[in-house]
Amino acid sequence: MSKDKIRNCFGIAVFLLITAGLGLLSHRNLLRFYVNNEKDYNDWSPELGNKFETDMASTFYDKFGFVNLNGAISSLLGQPSMNGVVKLENGWLLTPMDYSSDETLLRYADATAKVNDYLKSREIPLVYVTTPYTSSGYDPKLPKGIYDHGNDNIDRFMEMLREEGVDTIDIRERMYEDGIDHYEMMYRTDHHWTTEAGLYAYGLLEDYIREKTGCIVDERISDINSYTVTKYEKWHLGSNGQRTGIYYSGIDDFDLILPDFETALTDQDGNTGSMQDLMIDMEPLSDRDYKSRYTYDHVMKNTLGNFTNLRSKNDIKVVFITDSFGRAVNQYLAMGFGQVVYVSDRDVSGFTPAFIDAFDPDVVIMMYYPMFLQEGSDAFSFNGF
């Protein structure tokens, strides 16, 4: 046998041994998953042909390392997409959205309009707020050959709401009008907006509530200069980054925004403390972990809840119906107004006429990420209206 053949056979043997070793380690992880529900991390589970294949891929040994390697190669080759994620021309990562039919959007708009009609009968204003979407409607930056319907879905839905007489705030439009860089308000690797964007959104909501109710609000709350902003550099790898790794489009910084003024709140469990004490979890900021996309969710994990403001300059009661984007906003609402009650997008069935009659809010805010405009959403499944 020639030396070349020997060398080739040796290379094949080494490759097979490595593959077999990784397979054994992966099956060990798979067994741990089935017995103890242990995974290396839970953020990325690919959709495969059957449950076993999906479970196997989800527990593959050093999966994150292989995702990073794949992402590095994809970036070097200039590939515009990877694992269902699209890299925009500026490097921001997007999970494209399918087209939502007019029938679907009309159904959601009609459900919202019915809530609005009931609230109007009680002289309670409702405002629907659309959050930004990673790709800007004014400058989409989509690679050639890539199609996405996220902004189009939003545009058509917002027009339907306006035709129904529902108050709306389109944060995409407001940022554009204010000369704000859309992309700087969105994480590069996540579908979420930044903490600074949450404060900006609060300012728009504060203006709306003051206009509708004539109330007085502590002006420090909407002023970024009233806060200490601590930047955690290269700290956050979001939901899209988990699918593409740390080398495909980099890593996000995470800004923690905490008030320099005193706050005092009571939560739904009767606990009293400052906004930071009740809402902010500092533990995820003590140790950088790129395998978890939950920096955003975990640091602000307690912001979505029911709060009474013991230092409020008003007695305004707010109902906030929202998804995870609300995590970056609700702490400011709680500091700005007398009482805030949170309704989760995952279960709006409890938001009923009876609930409204009992709580008697001064204003209701609906704020959703555009994903909830796709078919099958439960975010508009209101009862009794």
Keywords:
385 residues; alpha/beta; 2 domains; eight-stranded mixed beta sheet; three-stranded antiparallel beta sheet; 12 helices; globular
What do these coordinates show?
The chain is an alpha/beta fold and 385 residues long. The chain has two domains: 3-61; 102-373, no CATH class. It has twelve helices and 13 strands. The protein has helices spanning 3-36, 51-58, 63-76, 102-121, 150-163, 171-177, 195-213, 239-244, 275-279, 295-299, 330-336, 353-359, and strands at 81-82, 85-87, 93-94, 126-130, 167-170, 227-236, 252-259, 265-267, 272-273, 307-309, 317-322, 339-344, 363-368. Strands 5-4-13-11-12-10-8-9 form an eight-stranded mixed sheet, with helices on both faces. A three-stranded antiparallel sheet has the order 1-2-3. The chain is globular, with a radius of gyration of 24 Å. Residues 18-39, 41-49 and 52-56 have low confidence and may be disordered.
Strand order of the largest sheet: 5-4-13-11-12-10-8-9
- What letter string, H or E per element, gives the SSE order? HHHEEEHEHEHHEHEEEHHEEHEHE
Helical content stands at 25-40%
Average pLDDT level = 87
Low-confidence stretches: 18-39, 41-49, 52-56
Say how many strands there are: 13
Shape: globular
The separation of the N and C termini measures 82 Å
Number of helices: 12
- The gyration radius over C-alpha positions equals 24 Å
Tally of separate domains: 2
Provide a concise account of the structure shown.
The chain has 385 residues and is an alpha/beta fold. It contains twelve helices and 13 strands.
Helix and strand topology:
Blueprint: H1 3-36, H2 51-58, H3 63-76, E1 81-82, E2 85-87, E3 93-94, H4 102-121, E4 126-130, H5 150-163, E5 167-170, H6 171-177, H7 195-213, E6 227-236, H8 239-244, E7 252-259, E8 265-267, E9 272-273, H9 275-279, H10 295-299, E10 307-309, E11 317-322, H11 330-336, E12 339-344, H12 353-359, E13 363-368
Parallel strand pairs: 4-5, 4-13, 11-12, 11-13
Antiparallel strand pairs: 1-2, 2-3, 6-7, 8-9, 8-10, 10-12
